[in-house]
Amino acid sequence: MTDAVGFRAPTDWKTDAMQKRIRKRYRAERRFRALGLAAVAMSAAFLIFLLAVMVGNGAAGFMRTEVALPIDFKAAPLDIDRAQLATRGADLALAGAGLQDRVATAATAAFGEKGEELIAENAWTAVRDAIKADPNLLSQRAHVWVPASSDLDAAADGGGEPAMQAEVRKLRERGALQSGFNAGFLSRADSTDPTAVGIWGAFKGSLLTMLVTLLIAFPIGVLSAVYLEEYAPKNRWTDLIEVSINNLAAVPSIIFGLLGLAVFLGTFGLPRSAPLVGGLTLALMIMPVIVIAGRNAIKAVPPSIRDAALGIGASRVQVVFHHVLPLALPGILTGTIIGMARALGETAPLLLIGMRAFIVTPPGGVFDPATVLPVQIFLWSDEVSRGFIEKTSAAIIVLLVFLLAMNALAIYLRNRFETRW
Amino acid sequence: MTQVDFADTAETSAAPAVAPGVPKMAAQGVNVFYGEKQAIRDVSIDVNMENVTAFIGPSGCGKSTFLRTLNRMNDTVASARVEGLITLDGENIYDKTMDVVQLRARVGMVFQKPNPFPKSIYENVAYGPRIHGLARAKGDMDQIVERSLKRAGLWEEVKDRLQDSGTALSGGQQQRLCIARAIAVDPEVILMDEPCSALDPIATAKIEELIHELRGRYAIVIVTHNMQQAARVSQRTAFFHLGTLIEYGETDQIFTAPRQERTKDYITGRYG
């Protein structure tokens, strides 16, 4: 043997070629580290830019400009029976008594001819709520803070037309202008007037839709993963199913929307625009993601644990539910987070099943018409009125907060179930 | 058959090796296939109570495969197929009426690599009795856990930390925990698949000592690569080669006067 190889001189590690190779290796190392750092820095910069823009634009969306409207019920009382104010018919009674006109006249009286343009169309509802809170107002001369019109609102933020900016200056001098937290934004639904819109309708729609998605996709996805991994025989059919599931995970979401339209609305006749249908459609979409993640997590459970349980006489179901699933759960939850995050941000399939409708009341249940946060953002971004720009950013902030809250919950659950061995 | 061989050589064994009457477990003409490949050819063997039976042989000779047919662990391998007759107390364990879950409770198993559940020491031992409903009264479970850990020689080391994770123990302790887990369901036969191959010599000595103590209650079958270990712990030894049972007899006879040339070559280190 040694004869065939022959004599070989000991390696000289000090030659120039060797030194050059060493320097080259160090250079490659440094270069790679710099590139990696640059990549991370770039994604961080994008993220910070995005957040800064969103927060900068959106913060104004949570605020609203209010005008102090002097209104005199003492000189000209409203024709209304006070006993009605305590009943559920109070809103109707006040509207019937011509409160809206009275507010408009008060605005003209206080701010001149164009006074009506300074206050929001729904400003009278602020007066209505004030009366309901304190019926004594009906016999007094008082100031009520009402929301400003969108034009005035824009001018107060530093934009808008010059005429409106003059009005803003005048009102500021009188101390009749204030900026307050727009609580209504978090409690109302969509509207045509940007000062009157709220995100609660879309938020609740998203919540209900996500609930349906989770309740359908999680159990079905996990059971499929368990069956395919633990029970199904390995043959051509299961191979085919595996390939189909992998492909399904990559199908563009709008196609799932068409499927939902054809099956849930067409065949089953479920109500249009309902979170139930949206949830079912999105569940179809994220099920493959959960199945794939679930199968990988189940595959990663060491076979020795299965052997151990089988060896002391556990049945297959006991092995799965006592040992495999608890150990696979963190991985399954990771897949579910990814799927749910995708579902939460999905717009296209929901447009097709009618969740882009203009809906002014928050949904009461999964059968009521509703819209969801990303669709609401899409709708508002399409509006021309300037007030909608900041509302769009505000809605994006709400969507991101929702997403973060959902992920935080899932990560908390995952860490709780994590087992160390 | 082999039954006759026992009687002939009984006197040479150090321990009382021969049980009267029906053997605890018996295999007759067993063939095992993995798909097309035959892993075990026509093996017939008897396993008796209060006896340690060692399976020795070179790697890949089928001794572990055969061991796993004794409690039907091969059922989990989709391509595995078993032919022939294997009985436990005279009942065919591959019969349709045989419940595999009960079979595995009666024929326990300890694996090559210690595989405690990632749960507390207490839960590891209590799991088997719990799923089989063995602890009826309150406090029964505590007793079962204590008794099993004592029999496995682990009680003194862990009695103050039963709620600690079973995976936090040392390798040898983990393996004894696995033995405690197996005996907690009161099996009749314990199968051990190279239980010491992942352990250091001191832990190995402890396990071997434990096997000696357990012998009085159970029929034990141990697969081992280590011929000294087979000689130390077993009363009967079976030598497997290429899926066939070459020789089966009293351990002393196998190691001192093997009847087959191949057995002799293997135990003298000619191959393996």
Topology of this protein?
The complex is a heterodimer of chains A (421) and B (272).
Chain A (H helix, E strand, L loop, with lengths): L1 H4 L10 H44 L3 E10 L17 H7 L2 H13 L3 H4 L4 H11 L7 E7 L2 H7 L5 H13 L2 E5 L18 H32 L4 H13 L4 H15 L7 H25 L3 H9 L4 H29 L3 H5 L20 H9 L5 H31 L4
Chain B lengths: L1 H8 L15 E10 L2 E11 L3 E6 L6 H7 L10 E9 L2 E2 L7 H7 E4 L10 H11 L8 H12 L3 H4 L12 H13 L5 E5 L7 H14 L4 E5 L3 H7 L2 E6 L2 E7 H6 L4 H7 L5
Helix pairs in contact in B: 4-5, 4-7, 5-7, 7-8
- Work out the helix count of chain B: 11
Q: Major sheet of chain A: order of its strands?
A: 2-1-3
- The helical percent of chain A reads 55-70%
Order of helices and strands of chain B: HEEEHEEHEHHHHEHEHEEHH
Number of domains of chain A: 2
Helix-and-strand structural type of chain B = alpha/beta
What is the CATH T-level topology of chain B?
A: Rossmann fold
The CATH superfamily of the largest domain in chain A appears as: MetI-like
Main location (chain A): membrane
GO molecular function (chain A): phosphate transmembrane transporter activity
GO cellular component, one term (chain A): plasma membrane
Subcellular location (chain A): Cell inner membrane; Cell membrane
Descriptive notes:
The complex is a heterodimer of chains A (about 425) and B (about 270). With about 425 residues, chain A is mainly alpha-helical. Chain A folds into two domains: about 60-180, no CATH class; about 200-415, MetI-like (MetI-like fold). Chain A contains 17 helices and three strands. In chain A, strands 2-1-3 form a three-stranded antiparallel sheet. In chain A, helix 7 packs across helix 8 and helix 9 packs antiparallel against helix 14 (about 315-345). By secondary structure, chain B is an alpha/beta fold. Chain B has a single domain (about 1-265), classed as 3-Layer(aba) Sandwich (Rossmann fold), CATH 3.40.50. Chain B has helices at about 1-10, 65-70, 100-105, 120-130, 140-150, 155-160, 170-185, 200-215, 225-235, 250-255, 260-265, and strands spanning about 25-35, 35-45, 50-55, 80-90, 90, 105-110, 190-195, 220-225, 235-240, 245-250. In chain B, the strands form two sheets. A six-stranded mixed sheet of chain B has the order 6-7-8-3-9-10, with helices on both faces. A four-stranded antiparallel sheet of chain B has the order 2-1-4-5, with helices on one face. In chain B, a hairpin with a 2-residue loop joins strand 1 (about 25-35) and strand 2. In chain B, helix 4 runs parallel beside helix 7 (about 170-185), helix 5 (about 140-150) packs across helix 7 and helix 7 runs parallel beside helix 8 (about 200-215). The radius of gyration of chain B is 18 Å and the shape is globular. The chains are: A mainly alpha (about 425), B alpha/beta (about 270). The interface between A and B is medium-sized, with 22 and 29 residues. Chain A: It is found in: Cell inner membrane; Cell membrane.
